[in-house]
Amino acid sequence: RVPTTSGMTPKLGGSKSGDQFVPVRKSTIEISRKNSKAGRKSATTIPTVVALVFGGKQGKERRDEMLLRMPVVGPLVNLVAVERFCRVLAALTQTGVNLPDAVQVAADSTNNRVFQNKLTVAREAMMRGEGLARPIQTTNIFPPAARQMIRVGESTGSLDVQLQNAATFYERELKYRLKRTTDMFEPALILNLRGAVAYRATA
Prior knowledge:
Blueprint: H1 16-19, H2 21-54, H3 56-69, H4 73-94, H5 99-109, H6 113-130, H7 133-138, H8 144-156, H9 159-202
């Protein structure tokens, strides 16, 4: 005969032992409510903080600076900005636009706040008579080859040609590095896809 447990279970309707479970239930529900409120508050606070830090003009500068410092992405972002600056500045100087205005337009074309700010300083130094190559060098955002080409172009009067050569060179360099980066991550992507397929197959 299977023993019954009816006498062992406390009644929650009004017995003394049943009343002991009521505070536990209430406290559990209260903790759950507090955790839910905290989760909702975090869900609204975190995006707000991110928007304040990375939003607007100052936020864009922080984003651009962060991207330039990233291990793999940073060099690619730098190459994109350098290539675009050299190409636009070459086109403007070929059409006869005065150099200060051409530098300003070329800096804006990079769409990178770090480049824009440093090139603004370089432009001001250039307008004080320091030339272009020296202020460009002090920005510390251009690779050595680009600085050398600008220096040669300024000293020989072939700035537009050297800038075009630099743009072509860094365009090829960017494509090469993008391919290397893709090849580097491709095995990991394949392994992840295989793992996902195997998981779904055995699930």
